[in-house]
Amino acid sequence: MRRNRSTKIVATIGPATSDKEKLLELITTGVDIFRLNFSHGAHADHQKRFEAIRWAEKKSGRLVAIMADLQGPKLRVGTFANGPIELKNGQKFRLDMDKTPGDIKRVCLPHPEIFKALEKDTDLLLDDGKIRLRVKKFGADFAETEVIVGGKLSERKGVNVPQVALPISALTKKDREDLRFALDLGVDYIALSFVQRPEDVAEARKLIAGRAAIIVKVEKPQAVDCLDRLIEVTDAVMVARGDLGVEMATEDVPGIQKRIVRGCRRLGKPVIVATQMLESMITSPTPTRAEASDVATAVFDGADCVMLSAETASGQFPMEAVAIMNRIIEKVERDPLHRQIMDAEHPATEQTESDAMTTAASNVAHTIGAAALVTYTTSGSTAWRAARQRPMVPVLGLTTSLVTARRLALGWGIHPIAAKDVDDFEHMVESAVNHAKNSGLAKKHDRIVITAGVPFGTLGATNILRIARVG
What we know:
By secondary structure, this protein is α/β, with parallel strands linked by helices.
């Protein structure tokens, strides 16, 4: 099943799309990666969805990746004795560890790590930033605050502390249980929430032990502060604009999005732009013009993937959302300006044989008008390098590893195939030609460009470039 685009689509699975026939339709319509949101649903629900996705994958004949998105720490206020309260600008309001139901003067905040990290005039954001409190006095188990922006506050609303690096692991007890379950299922990617520092990624990588690749969700200002180091230590990045927009000024988010996408492309790591992309399609069969422009901007920036959340998880028009996102991407990628931007922002070629060979292959494919660029890869690194160049032709990623092939579904322009092993050069060329033809990427008399490493199966040894004609 050939895609007529290079940017991939991530769809979140939920009550609206759990049926296996609907999942098959989603793949046919354009979904490349499925997201299981572990903030909602029991393990039994996720297992059923995982099995249904694999059934749909087999039926469709196109490999798809599955991402387990961990919830991360959720900081919340406690309960209120008499229902929601109304906070007024300028009033005093106390947060403490007392579990007694709150009132107009105070409420429980059962997170000692927050009190330990506070400083005078630290701002606390409640209910997704709708309410802003400023700390005036604090101790080990309390904070006296002034209401800067008031409003209605009900129980168990979330708390954000944007100016402070909290001494909290990105993995809670629930996350560790979810992580073990997701790895046993066999997911391809683990998305980490609440990442503040590279050490959070190192902790997760030790637990994952190579059983899945890691996606860092950039949703904290502290993550933005060490962005380059985070990109280096992770396998992929998600621009989680919802939480990022709560903790940072709204006007800062677009620039940060572009900085993250550019940084990922420079280092050859796939990047997903997420949150509210087609939000109105939760209840409407068509998006707003602004939403269409938002998706287009991410594609023009060179993002590997764009993501749908509630639109496909619980929305009324999941298929329509995928279909319109697919059409927007196709339209943008046909625009001459898109190719100009991709060519103008090529990352520098690294001084290695593999990178030099992959860059040359992209240039040769363009020069001769090849139908596809075929990469033989064991770990996936050759295909990732090819995608980093944003070539004008599709990248056919051939690998003997089904795990590697599914992970490659995240990459810009990569059509992944789990292929049989090859044992000599002639067999390699024949296999590349057949797969390019059978996948619909090339037809008779077309030329393809092939890269591989000899000896075959050697990691990071891309040292051959070959032009072949499809018979």
